[in-house]
Structures are given as C-alpha cells and as structure tokens.
Amino acid sequence: MPNPPSLDSTIGKYRWTICSLVFFATTVNYLDRAVISLLKPYLEVEFKWNSGDYANIEIAFKLAYSLGMLGVGRIIDKLGTKMGYALSTFLWSLAAIGHAFVSSTLGFSVARAFLGVTEAGNFPAAIKTTAEWFPQKERALATGIFNSGSNVGAIIAPLTVPLIAETIGWQWAFIITGAIGFVWLGLWFWLYEVPARHAKLTKAEFDYIHSDVDDLAAASIETEPKVSWFKLLTYRQTWAFVLGKFLTDPVWWFYLFWLPDFLNKQYGLKGTAVALPVAAVYVLSSIGSVGGGWIPLNFIRNGMPAFKARKTSMLLIALCVFPIVFAQRLGQIDMWLAVLVIGIAAAAHQAWSANIFTTVSDMFPKRAVASVTGIGGMAGGLGGIALTALVQKRMFVYYESIGQLDKAYFIMFWICGGAYLLAWVLMHFLAPRMKKIDLEA
C-alpha cells in the first residue's frame, strides 16, 4: 500500500509503515469473517440450512464478538498494542482455519463464536495504535486508510473464495484464508514497536507524532493505572460513541453477511457470478473509507477545529447513506444501479467509521482509548444481534415462507438509510462540543 502524502513527507516514514501493518491486519480480519457468506450456497446444500439457521450462526458470531469487545480493550490496554494485537490475530487465524474441520450446524455456531471473540481485538488494537503513532489532525486519515482494509478483505473474498470452493472444496477456502494471518504476525513482530521504544524513529518524527499532546507524560510509556469500565460509563462522551456504534454497526453487518444472498435471491446470481458486483460494492467502500478520513483533514487544514470538522463530516456522510432506500426500485431498471447505490451507502458507512473511531482519541487520553473502543464495539455487536434476532431472523424467515423476500429487503434498506442520521443527532446531543476527558478529575 503506497504511503499517502504526509503533512511533512520527510518525517512520515515509520508512522505510515505502521499504518500499512494495521491495514493488512484489518484486511485479514474481514477476509476471514466474510468467507462464510460466500460459502453459504454450498453450506446450505450440505447442511440443509434455511435463513433461520444462517441467522443463528450469524448471531453466534456477533454475540461472541460483542462479549469479546467488552474485555479485549482492557486486555490490549494492559498488554500493550504489540502483544495484544499479535495474540488476537494468532487466535482468530486458528479459529478461521478451524471452520474447515466442522461437520454440523452446531459446530459452525461454535467455530463462529470462537472467531467472533478473537476477531474482537482488531479494532481496539488498531485505534490504540493509531492514537500512539499519529497526531490528532492525521488520525481520521490514518483510520480511514487502515479501515479500508475491511473493504479490501471483502473484495478479495468474492474473487477467491468461490473459486477455491469450486476447484478444491469449501474446506480449503477456510484454511487458505485463515493461514494469511500468520504471515502478518511475522511482519508485525519484525516491524512494530511503540514510538517511545522504536529504535530507528527519528526525534523529528517522534516530536511530530506528539505535536498536539499537552501532557508531556503522554508522549512517554504510560505508567498510569488503567481506568475502570464503570468510570468510563459515567461520561456522556462514552455514551455518544456507544450509541453511534449501536445504531450503525448493524448496517455494516447486514452488508457483509447478506449482500451475496440479496444478489442471489433478487437477481439469481450464484457462485463466481456474485464476485464482480460484491467486489464493486467494496471497491466503493474502500474509496469511502479513505475519503472519510480526508474530509475532516481538509476542513482542519482550512482552519476548522478538529472536533467540529469531525462532526460536520459525519453529518454529510450520514446524508449520503439515505439513497439506499431506493436500491430495489433502481434495481428494477438495472441490477448495477442497485449495486451502485448500495456501494455508495457502504462507502458512506466506512467514511462514518473512520470518523466515529477517531472521536474516541479526540475525547479520551491514550490509556483509555482501547477500553472505550471495546465498549463501543460491544455495543455495535449487540446492535447487530438485536437487528438479526428481532428483524432479520423473524422478518426474513416469514417473508421467505410466503415468497415475498423482496419486502424484507425493502424494510431493511429503510432501516439502513435512517440509522446514521439518528445516530448523528444522538451523538450531537450527548457531545455537542469538544471536551477532552480528564480522568483524574
């Protein structure tokens, strides 16, 4: 991945290398979780699944992911980014490979649960890494770049997984994709260290990384005691992040787990035929992820305060999601119009994600970033479970049973279109202006 232009390219070498590593990890993370949605047609035949069975397996992943988020942020804050990130990646790679040896529907639920709890470590570790290595003005851009890895993983999956399944069997799709995580582990241990301990980091780049830190102690290795979840939950800023994630994360889960099924049921696409439209959606998402980081950076460069730039960007992004409500009507004209509008909404989600994650490091000191990110990630997972259990599972099974599945997707697209605007309003109410949390107060 090429380095983006830095505000000062002469001192950007190491932090953008670190960003590339986090990008790679996020790519692997999403590649591993996306595999099952593309193997669904094969697994439905072999294990005789219906929409309810698949929804139950999806719930198992989300529940474990949510519970994992509750604790993994604390673990990463305690172990540090180097060991915490490595442990999480090692375990989720084992879990991904383990799917190949499952022989029952219950076994898939167990395998997905193990994958969920271990994959929960990626974003708390990634956001903490970004907070450690980037000044505030560059964090949304860095987050957008590494977060685009989720789209790259989702692009690689449809281009490779069906082909692997067709040629050597669905089991090998899990084994090959899962093994990529071990390649990342080698690079991580070779290249990564926190700035204060990085042997080759120049003083100029170290000073630039910490150029907006008021407390000089934050630029060194943190020795302060960690903050309890209960204390973090007393802050309105925590709840702003929590509600934002609760309302919008489920939309991304919907795209990830149900997009291939939508294309199959609405347009008859199967196997490798689904690869191009799914990949197109995630190509647009990658553009949105990086663009979502660029928008507030551009506002900041033009004199807007960082937090206002972030919130203004998020409002514009929320408005870009709404046209998804017209996806099916446009799809009646041409399937690719539906793919385009879904792709724009997915791109807007990734732009939103790049900014909502960055609000945590805007509002909280570095020693609490992974913990707050974990709490919000748990909320996002619980939102996904609620959407699947209360809406998708009941609604999709019902409408499928009466041969009107298109109505279920129509309702879901309206939910997707309104979620971000509601989230923005609630976040603005809870955190109307920038206020850096003083955990010692």
Automatic annotation (TrEMBL):
<keyword id="KW-0472">Membrane</keyword>
<feature type="domain" description="Major facilitator superfamily (MFS) profile">
    <location>
        <begin position="18"/>
        <end position="435"/>
    </location>
</feature>
<dbReference type="InterPro" id="IPR020846">
    <property type="entry name" value="MFS_dom"/>
</dbReference>
<keyword id="KW-0812">Transmembrane</keyword>
<feature type="transmembrane region" description="Helical">
    <location>
        <begin position="369"/>
        <end position="391"/>
    </location>
</feature>
<dbReference type="Pfam" id="PF07690">
    <property type="entry name" value="MFS_1"/>
</dbReference>
<feature type="transmembrane region" description="Helical">
    <location>
        <begin position="170"/>
        <end position="191"/>
    </location>
</feature>
<protein>
    <submittedName>
        <fullName>MFS transporter</fullName>
    </submittedName>
</protein>
<dbReference type="InterPro" id="IPR050382">
    <property type="entry name" value="MFS_Na/Anion_cotransporter"/>
</dbReference>
<feature type="transmembrane region" description="Helical">
    <location>
        <begin position="239"/>
        <end position="259"/>
    </location>
</feature>
<keyword id="KW-1133">Transmembrane helix</keyword>
<feature type="transmembrane region" description="Helical">
    <location>
        <begin position="279"/>
        <end position="300"/>
    </location>
</feature>
<feature type="transmembrane region" description="Helical">
    <location>
        <begin position="312"/>
        <end position="330"/>
    </location>
</feature>
<dbReference type="InterPro" id="IPR036259">
    <property type="entry name" value="MFS_trans_sf"/>
</dbReference>
<feature type="transmembrane region" description="Helical">
    <location>
        <begin position="411"/>
        <end position="431"/>
    </location>
</feature>
<dbReference type="InterPro" id="IPR011701">
    <property type="entry name" value="MFS"/>
</dbReference>
<feature type="transmembrane region" description="Helical">
    <location>
        <begin position="84"/>
        <end position="102"/>
    </location>
</feature>
<feature type="transmembrane region" description="Helical">
    <location>
        <begin position="336"/>
        <end position="357"/>
    </location>
</feature>
